[in-house]
Write a structure and sequence with these properties.
- Strands 1-7-6-5-4-2-3 form a 7-stranded mixed β-sheet, with helices on both faces.
- It is globular and about 75 Å long.
- It is built from 16 helices and 12 strands.
- Helix 3 runs parallel beside helix 4.
- It folds into 2 domains: 239 residues, Aspartate Aminotransferase, domain 2; 164 residues, Aspartate Aminotransferase, domain 1 (Alpha-Beta Complex).
- Strand 5, helix 7 and strand 6 form a beta-alpha-beta unit.
- By secondary structure, the chain is of the alpha/beta class.
- The two termini are 28 Å apart.
Length: 408
Protein backbone atom coordinates (compact mmCIF):
# COMPACT_ATOMS: atom_id res chain seq x y z
CA UNK A 1 0.00 0.00 0.00
CA UNK A 2 1.04 3.57 -0.61
CA UNK A 3 1.84 5.92 2.25
CA UNK A 4 -1.45 7.84 2.31
CA UNK A 5 -3.43 4.61 2.40
CA UNK A 6 -1.30 3.16 5.21
CA UNK A 7 -1.81 6.35 7.22
CA UNK A 8 -5.59 6.25 6.84
CA UNK A 9 -6.16 2.52 7.41
CA UNK A 10 -6.21 1.52 11.09
CA UNK A 11 -6.16 -2.20 11.86
CA UNK A 12 -9.07 -2.87 14.25
CA UNK A 13 -9.41 -6.56 13.37
CA UNK A 14 -8.34 -7.72 16.84
CA UNK A 15 -11.53 -6.34 18.41
CA UNK A 16 -13.79 -9.27 19.34
CA UNK A 17 -16.89 -7.31 18.29
CA UNK A 18 -15.41 -6.34 14.90
CA UNK A 19 -15.59 -2.59 15.49
CA UNK A 20 -14.40 -0.62 12.48
CA UNK A 21 -12.81 1.97 14.77
CA UNK A 22 -10.50 0.96 17.60
CA UNK A 23 -12.51 1.11 20.86
CA UNK A 24 -11.32 2.99 23.93
CA UNK A 25 -10.46 0.46 26.61
CA UNK A 26 -10.80 3.03 29.39
CA UNK A 27 -9.98 0.67 32.21
CA UNK A 28 -7.23 0.37 34.77
CA UNK A 29 -7.40 -3.39 35.19
CA UNK A 30 -8.55 -6.50 33.36
CA UNK A 31 -10.23 -9.48 35.09
CA UNK A 32 -8.17 -12.67 35.01
CA UNK A 33 -9.29 -16.28 34.56
CA UNK A 34 -6.57 -17.55 36.88
CA UNK A 35 -5.02 -16.32 40.12
CA UNK A 36 -1.61 -17.64 39.10
CA UNK A 37 -1.37 -16.93 35.37
CA UNK A 38 -1.95 -13.58 33.65
CA UNK A 39 -3.82 -13.21 30.37
CA UNK A 40 -2.57 -10.82 27.65
CA UNK A 41 -3.71 -7.74 29.57
CA UNK A 42 -3.82 -7.27 33.32
CA UNK A 43 -3.09 -3.59 34.10
CA UNK A 44 -3.19 -0.65 31.68
CA UNK A 45 0.21 0.64 32.72
CA UNK A 46 1.67 -2.65 31.48
CA UNK A 47 -0.51 -2.98 28.40
CA UNK A 48 -3.77 -1.73 26.95
CA UNK A 49 -5.50 -2.77 23.70
CA UNK A 50 -6.12 0.81 22.57
CA UNK A 51 -2.51 1.81 23.13
CA UNK A 52 -1.22 -1.34 21.46
CA UNK A 53 -3.35 -0.62 18.37
CA UNK A 54 -1.79 2.84 18.22
CA UNK A 55 1.72 1.45 18.66
CA UNK A 56 1.23 -1.13 15.91
CA UNK A 57 -0.04 1.53 13.54
CA UNK A 58 2.84 3.93 14.21
CA UNK A 59 5.40 1.14 13.89
CA UNK A 60 4.21 0.21 10.41
CA UNK A 61 4.20 3.88 9.33
CA UNK A 62 7.84 4.21 10.38
CA UNK A 63 8.88 0.95 8.78
CA UNK A 64 9.93 -0.33 12.20
CA UNK A 65 9.11 -3.42 14.15
CA UNK A 66 8.10 -1.83 17.45
CA UNK A 67 6.68 1.49 18.63
CA UNK A 68 6.04 2.62 22.20
CA UNK A 69 3.71 5.49 23.13
CA UNK A 70 4.48 7.82 26.02
CA UNK A 71 2.82 10.71 27.82
CA UNK A 72 4.87 13.38 26.02
CA UNK A 73 7.60 13.86 23.47
CA UNK A 74 10.16 14.54 26.20
CA UNK A 75 9.15 11.30 27.92
CA UNK A 76 9.97 9.53 24.65
CA UNK A 77 13.39 11.22 24.39
CA UNK A 78 14.05 10.44 28.06
CA UNK A 79 13.23 6.77 27.48
CA UNK A 80 15.99 6.51 24.87
CA UNK A 81 18.53 8.25 27.11
CA UNK A 82 17.68 5.83 29.95
CA UNK A 83 19.63 3.22 28.01
CA UNK A 84 22.81 5.21 28.69
CA UNK A 85 24.89 4.55 31.81
CA UNK A 86 27.21 6.87 33.75
CA UNK A 87 30.38 7.45 31.76
CA UNK A 88 28.63 7.19 28.37
CA UNK A 89 28.75 10.14 25.99
CA UNK A 90 25.74 11.68 24.27
CA UNK A 91 26.58 13.81 21.24
CA UNK A 92 23.76 16.11 20.13
CA UNK A 93 23.33 18.44 17.20
CA UNK A 94 23.79 22.01 18.39
CA UNK A 95 20.32 23.13 17.24
CA UNK A 96 17.81 21.25 19.39
CA UNK A 97 14.57 21.92 21.21
CA UNK A 98 15.09 23.74 24.51
CA UNK A 99 13.42 20.94 26.47
CA UNK A 100 15.88 18.40 25.06
CA UNK A 101 18.78 20.70 25.91
CA UNK A 102 17.48 21.00 29.48
CA UNK A 103 17.14 17.22 29.77
CA UNK A 104 20.64 16.61 28.46
CA UNK A 105 22.46 19.32 30.43
CA UNK A 106 20.47 19.63 33.63
CA UNK A 107 19.31 16.05 34.17
CA UNK A 108 21.70 13.68 32.39
CA UNK A 109 25.01 15.47 32.98
CA UNK A 110 24.64 15.65 36.78
CA UNK A 111 23.96 11.91 36.72
CA UNK A 112 27.23 11.08 35.03
CA UNK A 113 26.35 11.16 31.31
CA UNK A 114 28.82 13.21 29.31
CA UNK A 115 27.04 15.60 26.95
CA UNK A 116 28.54 17.38 23.96
CA UNK A 117 27.03 19.53 21.23
CA UNK A 118 28.36 19.92 17.70
CA UNK A 119 27.24 21.00 14.28
CA UNK A 120 26.18 17.68 12.80
CA UNK A 121 24.76 19.23 9.64
CA UNK A 122 28.15 19.30 7.86
CA UNK A 123 30.17 16.26 6.86
CA UNK A 124 33.45 17.58 8.23
CA UNK A 125 32.08 18.52 11.64
CA UNK A 126 30.06 15.32 12.03
CA UNK A 127 33.03 13.16 11.07
CA UNK A 128 35.29 14.93 13.56
CA UNK A 129 32.73 15.02 16.37
CA UNK A 130 31.57 11.39 16.57
CA UNK A 131 34.30 9.48 18.39
CA UNK A 132 34.85 6.06 19.92
CA UNK A 133 33.65 7.54 23.23
CA UNK A 134 30.26 8.44 21.78
CA UNK A 135 27.45 6.05 22.66
CA UNK A 136 24.41 7.96 21.39
CA UNK A 137 24.14 10.53 18.58
CA UNK A 138 21.04 12.72 18.75
CA UNK A 139 19.69 15.06 16.10
CA UNK A 140 16.41 16.55 14.98
CA UNK A 141 15.05 16.31 11.47
CA UNK A 142 14.38 19.13 10.94
CA UNK A 143 16.17 20.98 13.74
CA UNK A 144 14.22 23.30 15.99
CA UNK A 145 14.09 26.25 15.47
CA UNK A 146 16.63 26.86 12.67
CA UNK A 147 15.26 24.01 10.51
CA UNK A 148 18.59 22.52 9.46
CA UNK A 149 18.78 18.98 8.09
CA UNK A 150 21.49 16.54 9.09
CA UNK A 151 22.52 13.85 6.62
CA UNK A 152 20.95 10.88 8.40
CA UNK A 153 22.60 8.23 6.25
CA UNK A 154 25.99 9.77 7.01
CA UNK A 155 25.31 10.08 10.75
CA UNK A 156 24.08 6.48 10.93
CA UNK A 157 27.20 5.20 9.17
CA UNK A 158 29.58 7.26 11.31
CA UNK A 159 27.80 6.31 14.52
CA UNK A 160 27.76 2.60 13.73
CA UNK A 161 31.41 2.58 12.65
CA UNK A 162 32.31 4.03 16.06
CA UNK A 163 30.05 1.76 18.10
CA UNK A 164 27.31 4.32 18.76
CA UNK A 165 23.59 4.45 18.03
CA UNK A 166 21.65 7.19 16.24
CA UNK A 167 18.45 8.70 17.60
CA UNK A 168 16.48 11.02 15.32
CA UNK A 169 13.74 13.30 16.57
CA UNK A 170 11.57 13.51 13.45
CA UNK A 171 8.77 15.55 15.01
CA UNK A 172 9.00 18.32 12.39
CA UNK A 173 8.47 15.98 9.43
CA UNK A 174 6.36 13.08 10.74
CA UNK A 175 6.41 9.57 9.23
CA UNK A 176 4.48 10.93 6.25
CA UNK A 177 7.54 12.82 5.00
CA UNK A 178 10.42 10.78 6.35
CA UNK A 179 11.18 7.39 7.91
CA UNK A 180 14.62 7.68 9.56
CA UNK A 181 14.77 3.96 10.40
CA UNK A 182 14.98 3.29 6.66
CA UNK A 183 17.94 5.69 6.52
CA UNK A 184 19.87 3.84 9.22
CA UNK A 185 18.67 5.37 12.50
CA UNK A 186 18.34 3.09 15.53
CA UNK A 187 15.64 5.14 17.28
CA UNK A 188 13.03 7.54 15.94
CA UNK A 189 11.22 9.75 18.42
CA UNK A 190 8.27 12.09 17.93
CA UNK A 191 6.47 14.59 20.01
CA UNK A 192 3.12 13.26 18.84
CA UNK A 193 1.61 16.40 20.31
CA UNK A 194 2.63 18.09 17.06
CA UNK A 195 1.81 16.75 13.57
CA UNK A 196 0.73 13.25 14.57
CA UNK A 197 -1.88 14.69 16.93
CA UNK A 198 -2.37 17.87 14.95
CA UNK A 199 -5.33 19.34 16.85
CA UNK A 200 -3.74 20.72 20.01
CA UNK A 201 -5.85 18.50 22.27
CA UNK A 202 -3.33 15.93 23.53
CA UNK A 203 0.27 15.48 24.60
CA UNK A 204 2.05 12.31 23.57
CA UNK A 205 5.39 10.90 22.48
CA UNK A 206 6.53 7.90 20.46
CA UNK A 207 9.73 5.87 20.15
CA UNK A 208 10.07 3.44 17.23
CA UNK A 209 12.84 0.87 16.78
CA UNK A 210 13.55 -2.13 14.60
CA UNK A 211 15.86 -4.00 16.97
CA UNK A 212 14.03 -6.55 19.13
CA UNK A 213 16.46 -6.24 22.03
CA UNK A 214 16.08 -2.45 22.14
CA UNK A 215 12.31 -2.82 22.00
CA UNK A 216 12.34 -5.16 25.01
CA UNK A 217 14.56 -2.77 26.98
CA UNK A 218 12.30 0.18 26.24
CA UNK A 219 9.14 -1.80 27.03
CA UNK A 220 10.60 -2.85 30.39
CA UNK A 221 11.41 0.76 31.26
CA UNK A 222 8.01 1.99 30.08
CA UNK A 223 6.30 -0.44 32.42
CA UNK A 224 8.73 -0.02 35.31
CA UNK A 225 8.60 3.78 35.24
CA UNK A 226 4.92 4.16 34.37
CA UNK A 227 5.40 6.47 31.38
CA UNK A 228 2.90 4.92 28.95
CA UNK A 229 0.23 6.95 27.15
CA UNK A 230 -3.31 6.71 28.56
CA UNK A 231 -6.04 4.79 26.71
CA UNK A 232 -8.07 7.91 25.95
CA UNK A 233 -5.09 9.85 24.58
CA UNK A 234 -4.15 6.77 22.57
CA UNK A 235 -7.61 6.84 21.03
CA UNK A 236 -7.35 10.57 20.27
CA UNK A 237 -3.99 10.06 18.63
CA UNK A 238 -5.21 7.14 16.52
CA UNK A 239 -8.13 9.26 15.32
CA UNK A 240 -5.84 12.16 14.48
CA UNK A 241 -3.15 10.20 12.66
CA UNK A 242 -5.67 9.11 10.03
CA UNK A 243 -5.83 12.65 8.63
CA UNK A 244 -2.08 13.32 8.81
CA UNK A 245 -1.48 13.36 5.06
CA UNK A 246 -4.49 15.58 4.36
CA UNK A 247 -3.43 18.10 6.99
CA UNK A 248 0.24 18.14 6.13
CA UNK A 249 -0.34 18.41 2.38
CA UNK A 250 -2.36 21.57 2.97
CA UNK A 251 0.03 22.93 5.59
CA UNK A 252 3.10 22.42 3.40
CA UNK A 253 1.47 24.03 0.39
CA UNK A 254 0.61 27.10 2.44
CA UNK A 255 4.01 27.15 4.16
CA UNK A 256 5.79 27.26 0.81
CA UNK A 257 3.75 30.30 -0.24
CA UNK A 258 4.27 32.05 3.09
CA UNK A 259 8.03 31.43 3.04
CA UNK A 260 8.38 32.72 -0.50
CA UNK A 261 6.28 35.77 0.36
CA UNK A 262 8.41 36.52 3.42
CA UNK A 263 11.59 36.54 1.32
CA UNK A 264 10.10 39.41 -0.68
CA UNK A 265 8.57 41.32 2.22
CA UNK A 266 10.33 44.46 3.36
CA UNK A 267 11.17 44.32 7.05
CA UNK A 268 12.17 40.64 7.06
CA UNK A 269 15.91 40.05 7.29
CA UNK A 270 16.27 36.27 6.89
CA UNK A 271 13.89 33.39 6.17
CA UNK A 272 14.68 29.81 7.22
CA UNK A 273 12.65 27.15 5.44
CA UNK A 274 13.95 23.96 3.75
CA UNK A 275 11.60 24.49 0.83
CA UNK A 276 13.61 27.54 -0.25
CA UNK A 277 16.47 26.89 -2.65
CA UNK A 278 18.82 29.14 -0.70
CA UNK A 279 18.36 27.31 2.59
CA UNK A 280 21.65 25.98 3.99
CA UNK A 281 20.67 22.30 4.00
CA UNK A 282 17.83 22.27 1.43
CA UNK A 283 19.60 19.73 -0.80
CA UNK A 284 20.31 17.36 2.08
CA UNK A 285 16.70 17.50 3.25
CA UNK A 286 15.28 16.99 -0.24
CA UNK A 287 17.45 13.87 -0.60
CA UNK A 288 15.97 12.21 2.48
CA UNK A 289 12.43 13.57 2.88
CA UNK A 290 9.41 13.99 0.61
CA UNK A 291 8.48 17.49 1.75
CA UNK A 292 9.73 20.57 3.63
CA UNK A 293 7.28 20.49 6.52
CA UNK A 294 5.23 23.49 7.61
CA UNK A 295 7.38 25.36 10.13
CA UNK A 296 9.05 28.60 9.09
CA UNK A 297 11.54 30.68 11.05
CA UNK A 298 12.60 34.21 10.21
CA UNK A 299 14.40 37.19 11.67
CA UNK A 300 13.75 40.93 11.52
CA UNK A 301 17.11 42.18 12.76
CA UNK A 302 15.49 43.84 15.80
CA UNK A 303 14.02 41.96 18.76
CA UNK A 304 11.63 44.85 19.49
CA UNK A 305 10.23 44.66 15.97
CA UNK A 306 9.81 40.89 16.28
CA UNK A 307 7.95 41.25 19.57
CA UNK A 308 5.57 43.86 18.12
CA UNK A 309 5.06 41.72 15.03
CA UNK A 310 4.15 38.63 17.03
CA UNK A 311 1.85 40.50 19.38
CA UNK A 312 -0.04 42.17 16.52
CA UNK A 313 -0.85 38.97 14.65
CA UNK A 314 -4.54 38.14 14.86
CA UNK A 315 -4.91 34.73 13.24
CA UNK A 316 -1.59 33.31 14.41
CA UNK A 317 -1.95 32.52 18.10
CA UNK A 318 1.06 33.05 20.35
CA UNK A 319 1.80 29.55 21.59
CA UNK A 320 4.60 27.09 22.15
CA UNK A 321 4.51 23.87 20.14
CA UNK A 322 3.69 23.56 16.43
CA UNK A 323 2.03 21.27 13.92
CA UNK A 324 -1.60 22.03 14.70
CA UNK A 325 -4.44 22.79 12.31
CA UNK A 326 -4.52 26.35 13.66
CA UNK A 327 -1.53 28.53 12.81
CA UNK A 328 0.61 29.73 15.68
CA UNK A 329 3.64 31.92 16.28
CA UNK A 330 6.34 32.13 18.92
CA UNK A 331 9.58 33.82 19.87
CA UNK A 332 11.71 30.72 20.54
CA UNK A 333 14.37 32.43 22.64
CA UNK A 334 11.71 33.78 24.98
CA UNK A 335 9.53 30.67 24.94
CA UNK A 336 10.43 27.12 23.82
CA UNK A 337 14.21 27.66 24.00
CA UNK A 338 14.38 29.96 27.01
CA UNK A 339 15.94 27.20 29.12
CA UNK A 340 19.09 27.38 26.96
CA UNK A 341 21.55 29.87 28.54
CA UNK A 342 22.09 33.13 26.68
CA UNK A 343 25.71 32.32 25.83
CA UNK A 344 24.73 28.98 24.33
CA UNK A 345 21.93 30.59 22.31
CA UNK A 346 24.40 33.18 21.01
CA UNK A 347 26.81 30.44 19.95
CA UNK A 348 23.97 28.75 18.05
CA UNK A 349 22.88 31.98 16.30
CA UNK A 350 19.57 32.02 18.15
CA UNK A 351 18.79 35.73 18.35
CA UNK A 352 15.99 37.36 20.30
CA UNK A 353 14.54 38.56 16.99
CA UNK A 354 13.95 35.00 15.75
CA UNK A 355 10.29 34.29 14.99
CA UNK A 356 8.86 30.80 14.41
CA UNK A 357 5.65 30.23 12.49
CA UNK A 358 3.63 27.03 12.49
CA UNK A 359 1.38 27.05 9.43
CA UNK A 360 -2.08 25.56 9.86
CA UNK A 361 -4.86 24.69 7.44
CA UNK A 362 -6.50 28.12 7.16
CA UNK A 363 -6.79 29.88 3.81
CA UNK A 364 -3.25 30.97 3.04
CA UNK A 365 -4.46 34.35 1.77
CA UNK A 366 -5.79 35.16 5.22
CA UNK A 367 -2.47 34.15 6.76
CA UNK A 368 -0.59 36.40 4.35
CA UNK A 369 -2.94 39.29 5.08
CA UNK A 370 -2.41 38.81 8.79
CA UNK A 371 1.37 38.74 8.45
CA UNK A 372 1.29 41.77 6.19
CA UNK A 373 -0.67 43.92 8.64
CA UNK A 374 1.42 42.79 11.63
CA UNK A 375 4.70 43.52 9.84
CA UNK A 376 3.37 46.93 8.83
CA UNK A 377 2.52 47.74 12.43
CA UNK A 378 5.79 46.35 13.80
CA UNK A 379 7.96 48.34 11.39
CA UNK A 380 5.94 51.58 11.52
CA UNK A 381 7.42 54.57 13.33
CA UNK A 382 4.11 55.51 14.94
CA UNK A 383 3.56 52.20 16.72
CA UNK A 384 0.58 53.28 18.85
CA UNK A 385 -1.37 54.70 15.95
CA UNK A 386 -0.53 51.78 13.68
CA UNK A 387 -1.60 49.25 16.29
CA UNK A 388 -5.11 50.66 16.17
CA UNK A 389 -5.42 50.10 12.41
CA UNK A 390 -8.47 48.06 11.33
CA UNK A 391 -8.16 44.49 10.20
CA UNK A 392 -7.69 43.91 6.47
CA UNK A 393 -10.95 43.26 4.62
CA UNK A 394 -10.19 39.56 4.12
CA UNK A 395 -9.88 39.08 7.89
CA UNK A 396 -13.15 40.76 8.79
CA UNK A 397 -15.56 39.64 6.09
CA UNK A 398 -16.76 36.13 5.43
CA UNK A 399 -16.45 35.07 1.82
CA UNK A 400 -17.56 32.12 -0.24
CA UNK A 401 -14.48 30.07 -1.02
CA UNK A 402 -16.28 27.90 -3.54
CA UNK A 403 -15.16 29.91 -6.57
CA UNK A 404 -11.48 30.10 -5.71
CA UNK A 405 -10.49 26.75 -4.32
CA UNK A 406 -7.59 26.55 -6.75
CA UNK A 407 -5.99 29.39 -4.80
CA UNK A 408 -5.81 27.30 -1.64
Amino acid sequence: MRTRTRIARIDATSDPHRATAVPIYQTATFAQDSATEFSQYDYSRSGNPTRHALERHLAQLEGGGHALAYGSGLAAVTAVTRLLVPGDELLAHDDVYGGSWRLFCQVLEPRGIRVRFADLSTTASATASITAATKLVFCESLSNPLLFACDLRLLARLAHERGARLCVDATAVSPYLQQPLRLGADFVVHSATKYLGGHGDLTAGVVTVRDEHLARQLAFLQNAEGTALSPFDSFLLLRSVQTLSLRLDRQQQSAQRVAEWLTRRRGIARVLFPGLAGHKTAAVHKNQASGPGAVISFTTGDDRVSKRLVENLRLFRIAVSFGGVQSSVSLPCSMSHKSIPTAARTDRDLGLDLVRLSIGIEDVRDLLDDLDQAIAIATATGDTEAAAAPLPRSLTEQTDDGDDRDAH
